[in-house]
């Protein structure tokens, strides 16, 4: 959207409005992170090639700040894990009770699409359970009281899988509470279990990134010391 003129065409395919605030914020965040990574790499490469003690020092300093920020974030996440979990649960509950909407062909709300994808992938419905949608005003006066993504029998066919009038959806919404083709468990517990099951992998990735950053700092300092010794000898 910011740099590619064809980006709007890509968004049209998945029915997302490029003016949606969440999309704007996500794109800006990615650009900022990319700029920081590029700047850091640029300083390291130029410092090594030009044998610049100043650039190498700046590279090591930025890498150190990033590493410190990551360690601080990890410690805070561990210390306030319960508080973060409660905040996430509260926000998920609020979203299911008031914000979630039925998917429509013209729906362009990124958060609704993301929530629907989560329910579909994790095989869950609502935050605590499917009953979270019972008081959601967006599902009043409709032929279905729950999101289409709470159904397990969606399939690609001539009928749109998310069309509430399709045969698949009618089968699901018929006696939703008792049939075996609807998801009834909440997404908070499902998401928590998903993270816990992959905790070792996530920790391993984090440790791996930290090790690479530490090696980068060490190598930068070693090259800087070699450059300084070379300058002294000269």
From TrEMBL:
Q: Taxonomically, which superkingdom?
A: Eukaryota
Tell where it localizes: Membrane
InterPro entries hit by this protein: Tetraspanin/Peripherin (IPR018499), Tetraspanin_animals (IPR000301), Tetraspanin_CS (IPR018503), Tetraspanin_EC2_sf (IPR008952)
Task: Provide this UniProt record's keywords sorted from A to Z.
Answer: Disulfide bond, Membrane, Transmembrane, Transmembrane helix
Q: Which SUPFAM superfamilies match?
A: Tetraspanin (SSF48652)
TM annotation in the entry: 25-50, 56-80, 199-220
Tell me a GO cellular component. plasma membrane
> What membrane topology term does the record carry?
Multi-pass membrane protein
Predominant location of this chain?
Answer: membrane
> Has the keyword Mitochondrion been applied to this entry?
no
Keyword DNA-binding listed: no
Q: Disulfide connectivity?
A: 125-151
User: What family classification does the UniProt entry report for this protein?
Assistant: Belongs to the tetraspanin (TM4SF) family.
What is the protein named?
Answer: Tetraspanin
The organism of origin for this protein: Dimorphilus gyrociliatus
> Source organism lineage?
Eukaryota, Metazoa, Spiralia, Lophotrochozoa, Annelida
């Amino acid at each position: 959207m910011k740099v590619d003129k064809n980006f709007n065409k890509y968004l049209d395919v998945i029915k997302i409005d490029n003016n949606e605030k969440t999309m704007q914020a996500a794109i800006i965040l990615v650009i900022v992170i990319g700029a920081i990574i590029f700047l850091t790499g640029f300083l390291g490469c130029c410092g090594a090639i030009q044998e610049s003690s100043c650039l190498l020092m700046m590279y090591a300093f930025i890498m150190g700040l990033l590493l410190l920020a990551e360690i601080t974030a990890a410690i805070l996440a561990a210390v306030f894990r319960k508080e973060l979990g409660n905040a996430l649960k509260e926000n998920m509950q609020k979203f299911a009770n008031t914000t979630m909407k039925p998917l429509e062909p013209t729906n362009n709300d990124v958060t609704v699409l993301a929530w629907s994808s989560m329910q579909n992938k994790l095989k869950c419905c609502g935050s605590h359970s499917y009953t979270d949608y019972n008081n959601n005003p967006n599902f009043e006066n409709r032929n279905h009281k729950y999101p289409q993504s709470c159904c397990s029998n969606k399939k690609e066919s001539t009928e749109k899988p998310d069309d509430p009038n399709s045969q698949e959806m009618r089968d699901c919404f018929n006696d939703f509470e008792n049939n075996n083709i609807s998801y009834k468990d909440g997404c908070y517990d499902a998401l928590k279990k998903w993270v816990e099951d992959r905790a070792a992998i996530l920790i391993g990735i984090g440790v791996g990134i930290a090790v690479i950053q530490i090696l980068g700092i060490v190598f930068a300092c070693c090259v800087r010391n070699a450059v300084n010794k070379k300058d002294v000898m000269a």
